[in-house]
């Protein structure tokens, strides 16, 4: 009995210890996340971000097992994954909450069991750039090579949920865009060990676009599927599956296995053969008043994928659609489409598009009494496409819109078509037009389109398109978008090779217009107010196609762009290889004439490249200031100016989102010329007038201005030039930045009698002091020179005039007068005067040499920059030509005749490029030599002037006659 009591006491103590230990462990499970929560969160974030090329962040998290013991609940709030660098503004993933429930005891076993994973309000945005870079490639590469070791450890996910999710996929490389809203997904494990799953998926709104075509718009989708998995053979078997898409339902069946290659046998059949259900898949029809649509007819839609996909085999793919005796009408509308018959098949029996057959056996229908018939058979799509098709019918668009009412839109007009094609593309490529039959026409008249709640309104009074094997002949195509008008006539070549080979489509047109309002046309492009479109009325992007080569000989009577009004525009515009070329384009604007040549390229859509040569003749400076914001920004003095000027501008750089030059990228030259210009009440010159107490600079009448400017990466260097203002000459030079910073030097002289009272008093004080020293009556010099330094910014200029130099000049003149008066009596004074004059002459020459050397050095530097720019341009011409030549030879392939022709063409391209490069170098050398010649002339003039002034000083000193 005693022993039993001792044993019981020990057992109680052990139980107490066990319970206490369990309580401590249980408390730690509760307290550790609470006590060290911030440290755990910070460390977790650091570890994740160190292993990802992304920024991972989350808000709060909770770890608990009280309510679900022995399961462990883990919840993370506000979880986000954002990209870096190029994708720094993109959020790849975000979820309000992520809840995970884990079987805690399974951690001690070979099978790790996850009871459930739930994503609450997740948002996923996947993006692929044009160069193929994807924002989901966020895992850093590891140097560790995984070892091939077998493991008995497995895991089981019993339930997975997505609640009210959103997915955006934007693939710029493949031109695919899709959005899914209100997405709910639930996956449950329904049996073991067969691993059968029950899934339920629904989309509240699904939009899918590819290559500019919208295939689904706000579609509703739902999928109920039972799936069995065979992990050992990597096989999925679809047991019982039904897909609803809008009003259409399909039964899916089959399996997909990936042991090594991909083996499949899958198919679908339309469960509900309803023509209205089929029409619900068409975005333009499936809208708010879809219930008002009456549709009849028998529909069969099925498809199948069967076989093995590998490096050596390709499965069979087949899709078929049939409609018999279809009819469409809206309730209350008298017109309808009836007698609709459609038989369409696509079969793909092997790898490559040559194994695919597209066969529209028949499409026919009666559109409000107007019959339409179409057939098309396409084979050998890759190697040598074969066509056999026809289209014949006449449509009254106003009748069509009465059958399919378009909310907020009005369409009218008639389109009549009768086209047939039969033959192989190779016949056209050989120009063997006898063996390719293509003929017919497409005509239109009275076509009008208007959006009632927007500015968009356009009409096509008439057009005519004739079809031939060689080209499409467009005649009398008249387009009236708003207030603008276009009259287009021309031919389109290579249209079939463009479609099947993705080769450049070519064309030559004559374009006439009485009015072209670019502002209005651009406003038409910004009417999309969807959440996926960022609208900015001040921005406009123009993505130019690379496989289009079209030239337009344009003649526009009046053109309006921004605040620019052009009365006449004539020239050639060519669109080729993603660039716009202007050739000898002449416009009448700003009361003068402007000739423009150049290129505009959108290789980088956000920063298009531009290269322009512009000659502006007899342009009104006031109109220029009022029209161009760039002029208001860089030359605000133009607001106070009157007159006409000529400007030669040659630059290259980039454009911004406003389709205006990005000044920070501009490099080139500018020559400004004017015979006469008046400047009234300029702030800079008024400040100069105030500084020297003279009224002569408040209003200027400048003549014979010849200013040369060099632009390098947005910095403007103004080479020294002389301006005549009545009896005054101004020497101007300096630098200016795009930020408005200025650093100018103005050198000018002023007649003594033109100085203000304060300046005269200062000069007379110097005169009186010097007269007392020499004991004679003295007079002020006739002219006094000034150096004005203009710094600061265009909005807040700061003027500084060297007063010491001014007084020195006055004193020098006084000394000369004194020497003339005392030379006859004091020979020693005469000799001293001669020595003083010699020193001054030497100083003048030394200063002149410094100034001359500076002018030549700056001109030499500028000349070298011009030559370097010319050399770079020449090299670019040669490189681009070499690239074109290489592509031309490569394109010839193995055809010896084509290859010889291509090589000859390549030689010609390279030779023309060498000639063009030599011309560019020659023009650059010529501009550089002109700059050096101008600099040498200015330097020689400075030295000659200094030499003459020095000689005059010495001569005056030697001939001075001083009287007692």
Largest sheet: 39 strands, mixed
* Dominant shape: elongated
Q: What is the average per-residue confidence, as pLDDT, rounded to a whole number?
A: 79
Can you count the helices? 14
Q: Structural class, please?
A: alpha+beta
Strand content: over 45%
Structure characterization notes:
- The structure is a single chain.
- This protein has 964 residues and is of the alpha+beta class.
- It is built from 14 helices and 42 strands.
- The protein has a 39-stranded mixed sheet that branches. A 3-stranded mixed sheet has the order 27-29-30.
- Strand 39 (728-736) and strand 40 (742-751) form a beta hairpin.
- The longest helix is centred in the C-terminal third of the chain and has 66 residues, at 827-892.
- It is elongated and about 130 Å long.
SSE layout:
Blueprint: H1 2-35, H2 37-50, E1 55-57, E2 61-64, E3 71-82, E4 91-103, E5 111-120, E6 123-128, E7 154-157, E8 159-171, E9 176-191, E10 196-210, E11 213-230, E12 235-245, E13 248-257, E14 262-270, H3 275-279, E15 293-309, E16 316-330, E17 337-348, E18 356-367, E19 370-379, E20 386-396, H4 397-403, E21 409-424, H5 425-429, E22 436-451, E23 457-467, E24 471-481, E25 486-493, H6 495-501, E26 505-513, E27 516-517, H7 518-524, E28 548-556, E29 559-561, E30 564-566, E31 568-576, E32 579-589, E33 592-601, E34 609-620, H8 621-627, H9 629-634, E35 641-654, E36 667-680, H10 683-692, E37 699-712, E38 715-725, E39 728-736, E40 742-751, H11 757-774, E41 783-792, E42 797-801, H12 803-822, H13 827-892, H14 896-958
Parallel strand pairs: 5-7, 5-8, 6-8, 26-28, 27-29
Antiparallel strand pairs: 1-3, 2-3, 3-4, 4-5, 4-6, 8-9, 9-10, 10-11, 11-12, 12-13, 13-14, 14-15, 15-16, 16-17, 17-18, 18-19, 19-20, 20-21, 21-22, 22-23, 23-24, 24-25, 25-26, 28-31, 29-30, 31-32, 32-33, 33-34, 34-35, 35-36, 36-37, 37-38, 38-39, 39-40, 40-41, 41-42
């Amino acid at each position: 009995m005693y022993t039993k009591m001792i044993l019981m006491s020990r057992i109680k103590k052990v139980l107490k210890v066990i319970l206490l230990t369990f309580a401590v462990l249980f408390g730690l499970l509760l307290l550790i996340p609470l006590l060290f929560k911030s440290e755990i969160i910070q460390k977790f974030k650091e570890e994740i971000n160190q292993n990802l090329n992304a920024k991972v962040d989350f808000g709060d998290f909770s770890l608990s097992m009280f309510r679900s013991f022995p399961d462990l609940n883990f919840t993370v709030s506000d979880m986000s994954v954002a990209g870096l660098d190029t994708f720094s503004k993109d959020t790849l993933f975000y979820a309000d909450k992520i809840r995970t429930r884990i079987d805690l005891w399974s951690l001690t076993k070979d099978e790790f069991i996850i009871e459930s994973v739930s994503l609450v309000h997740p948002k996923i945005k996947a993006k692929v750039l044009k160069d193929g870079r994807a924002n989901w490639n966020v895992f850093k590469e590891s140097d560790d090579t995984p070892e091939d070791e077998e493991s008995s450890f497995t895991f089981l996910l019993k339930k997975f949920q997505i609640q009210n999710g959103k997915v955006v996929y934007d693939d710029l490389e493949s031109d695919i865009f899709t959005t899914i809203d209100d997405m709910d997904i639930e996956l449950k494990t329904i049996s073991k060990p067969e691993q059968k799953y029950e899934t339920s998926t629904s989309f509240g709104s699904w939009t899918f676009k590819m290559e500019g075509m919208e295939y689904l718009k706000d579609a509703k989708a739902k999928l109920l599927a039972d799936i069995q998995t065979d992990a050992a053979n990597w096989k999925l078997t679809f047991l019982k599956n039904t897909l609803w898409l809008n009003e259409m339902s399909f039964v899916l069946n089959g399996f997909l296995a990936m042991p090594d290659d991909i083996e499949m046998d899958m198919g679908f059949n339309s469960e509900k053969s309803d023509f209205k259900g089929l029409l619900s898949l068409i975005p333009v029809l499936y809208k708010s008043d879809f219930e008002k649509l009456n549709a009849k007819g028998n529909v069969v839609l099925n498809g199948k994928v069967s076989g093995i996909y590998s490096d050596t085999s390709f499965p069979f793919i087949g899709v078929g659609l049939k409609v018999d005796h279809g009819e469409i009408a809206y309730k209350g509308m008298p017109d309808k489409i009836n007698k609709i018959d459609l038989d369409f098949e696509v079969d793909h029996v092997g790898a490559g598009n040559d194994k695919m057959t597209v066969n529209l056996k028949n499409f026919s229908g009666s559109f409000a009494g107007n019959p339409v018939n179409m057939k098309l058979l396409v084979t050998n799509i890759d190697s040598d496409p074969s066509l056999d098709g026809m289209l014949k019918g006449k449509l009254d668009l106003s009748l069509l819109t009465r059958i399919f009412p378009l909310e907020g839109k009005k369409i009218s007009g008639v389109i009549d078509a009768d086209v047939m094609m039969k033959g192989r593309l190779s016949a056209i490529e050989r120009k063997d037009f006898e063996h390719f039959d293509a003929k017919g026409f497409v005509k239109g008249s009275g076509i009008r389109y208007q959006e009632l709640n927007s500015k968009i309104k356009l009409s096509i009074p008439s057009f005519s398109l004739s079809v031939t094997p060689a080209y499409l002949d467009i005649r009398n195509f008249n387009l009236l978008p708003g207030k603008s008008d276009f009259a287009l006539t021309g031919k389109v070549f290579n249209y079939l090779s463009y479609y099947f080979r993705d080769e450049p489509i070519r064309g030559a047109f004559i374009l006439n217009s009485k009015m072209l309002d670019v502002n209005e046309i651009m406003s038409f492009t910004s009417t999309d107010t969807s959440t996926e479109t960022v609208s900015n009325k001040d921005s406009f992007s123009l993505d130019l196609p690379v496989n289009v080569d079209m030239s337009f000989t344009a003649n526009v009577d009046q053109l309006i762009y921004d605040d620019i009004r052009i009365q006449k525009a004539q020239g050639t515009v060519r669109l080729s290889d993603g660039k716009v070329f202007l050739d000898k384009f002449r416009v009448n604007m700003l009361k003068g004439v402007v000739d423009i040549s150049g290129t505009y390229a959108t290789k980088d859509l956000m920063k298009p490249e531009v290269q322009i040569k512009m000659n502006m003749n007899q342009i009104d400076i006031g109109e220029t200031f009022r029209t161009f914001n760039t002029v208001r920004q860089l030359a605000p003095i133009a607001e106070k100016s009157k007159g006409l000027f000529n400007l030669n501008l040659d630059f290259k750089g980039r454009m911004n989102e406003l389709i205006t030059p990005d000044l920070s990228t501009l490099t080139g030259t500018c020559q400004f010329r004017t015979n006469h210009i008046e400047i009234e009440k300029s702030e800079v010159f008024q400040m100069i007038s105030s500084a020297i107490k003279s009224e002569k600079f408040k209003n200027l009448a400048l003549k014979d201005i010849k200013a040369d400017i060099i632009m390098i990466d947005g910095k403007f260097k103004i080479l020294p030039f002389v301006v005549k203002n009545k009896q005054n000459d101004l020497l101007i030079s300096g630098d200016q930045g795009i930020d408005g910073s200025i650093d100018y030097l103005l050198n000018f002289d002023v007649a003594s009698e033109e100085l203000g009272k304060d300046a005269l008093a200062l000069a007379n004080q110097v005169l009186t002091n010097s007269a007392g020293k020499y004991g004679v009556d003295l007079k002020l010099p006739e002219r006094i020179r000034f150096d004005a330094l203009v710094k600061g910014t265009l909005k807040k200029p700061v003027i500084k005039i060297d007063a010491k130099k001014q007084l020195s000049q006055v004193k020098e003149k006084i000394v000369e007068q004194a020497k003339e008066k005392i030379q006859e009596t004091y020979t020693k004074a005469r000799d001293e005067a001669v020595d003083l004059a010699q020193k001054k002459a030497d100083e003048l020459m030394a200063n002149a040499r410094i100034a001359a050397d500076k002018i030549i050095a700056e001109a030499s530097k500028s000349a070298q920059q011009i030559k370097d720019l010319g050399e770079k341009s020449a090299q670019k011409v040669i490189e681009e030509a070499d690239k074109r030549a290489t592509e031309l030879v490569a394109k010839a392939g193995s055809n010896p005749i084509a290859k010889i022709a291509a090589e000859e063409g390549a030689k010609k391209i390279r030779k023309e490029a060498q000639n063009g490069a030599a011309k560019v170098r020659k023009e650059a050398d010529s501009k550089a030599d002109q700059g050096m010649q101008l600099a040498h002339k200015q330097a020689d003039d400075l030295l000659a002037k200094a030499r003459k002034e020095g000689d005059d000083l010495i001569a005056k000193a030697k001939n001075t006659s001083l009287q007692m």
